[in-house]
Amino acid sequence: MKRHLISAGDLSRDDALLILDTAEELAQVSQRSIKKLPTLRGRTVVNLFFEDSTRTRISFEAAAKRLSADVINFSAKGSSVSKGESLKDTALTLQAMGADAVVIRHSASGAPHRLAEWVDGSIVNAGDGTHEHPTQALLDAFSMRRRLGPLDGRRVTIVGDVLHSRVARSNVLLLATLGAQVTLVAPPTLLPVSVGSWPCEISYDLDGVLPKSDVVMMLRVQRERMNAAFFPSAREYSRRYGLDRDRLGRMPDHAVVMHPGPMNRGMEIAAEVADSPRSTIVEQVTNGVTIRMAVLYLLLGGAELEGGAQ
């Protein structure tokens, strides 16, 4: 059976390091005048997006094309899916087309897992509901490692709307596997009930955690969800949990600032912090293509992930 990347928790330490090391080698391709390898020539990668995410979709498309794969972009909006076709029917169509890999983003947690039961090709989870986003966690770890070196013992603080964030869950799982110590900082209303079982610490005091942090990752405040009164006001949230110049000054000199994007400048992160040399936000976008190349290369290029990824 072919391999999939559905959860960051499926990756062993060896798997994760193999992906990061492969990405490091593939990053050199991006330095060339011709940014292409013939590795996946003749293979078909389908981007199956039931939710909008221009950046993630373009990143996967660029990654597949740099490996010479054929790419089919399947947007659920305006397709037969919006007319009521089920995920299973869509899967059978992809199977009939001979898709070697399907990159799926879906609003329902668990959709990639179900798709893997119906399609012979490799499934890559590009975000399912509020559940997981494993390639985002991999590109974040890759970005940290390039700035700070090995992640063993590094202290990573993830701040903000953990409740609705698939990025936070995948990062916690992957970073723990790589030996980092993760602390989540959020209002109690924005932490999931299950967080007690995650391999991380919890704090409600951002200022107390900053001086001990090697990495501070700010999560997007999902304004579309804020009608549920998770905190009193945008101003109050920004005052307690926003990263401004003063808070940046409390971080160690070597520490870096991250954000998975898109950002609300002036809400969870001040513009001057987002644009500072301490920020890896632009690098994260570049590294996203490289990491997704590594994932597709390892899933489809013949090299096997060694550990527990399935």
TrEMBL record:
PROSITE patterns to which the protein is assigned, alphabetical: CARBAMOYLTRANSFERASE
Family recorded in the similarity comment: Belongs to the aspartate/ornithine carbamoyltransferase superfamily. ATCase family.
Stretches assigned to the Aspartate/ornithine carbamoyltransferase Asp/Orn-binding domain: 153-299
HAMAP family assigned: Asp_carb_tr
Keyword Transferase: yes
Record's keyword terms, sorted: Pyrimidine biosynthesis, Transferase
Gene3D superfamilies from the UniProt entry: Aspartate/ornithine carbamoyltransferase
Organism from which the protein derives: Sinosporangium album
Domain Aspartate/ornithine carbamoyltransferase carbamoyl-P binding intervals: 3-145
Name of the protein in question: Aspartate carbamoyltransferase
Residues that hold L-aspartate according to the record: K83, R166, R220
Gene Ontology molecular function: amino acid binding; aspartate carbamoyltransferase activity
GO biological process per UniProt: 'de novo' pyrimidine nucleobase biosynthetic process; 'de novo' UMP biosynthetic process; amino acid metabolic process
Pathway: Pyrimidine metabolism; UMP biosynthesis via de novo pathway; (S)-dihydroorotate from bicarbonate: step 2/3
Subunit details: Heterododecamer (2C3:3R2) of six catalytic PyrB chains organized as two trimers (C3), and six regulatory PyrI chains organized as three dimers (R2).
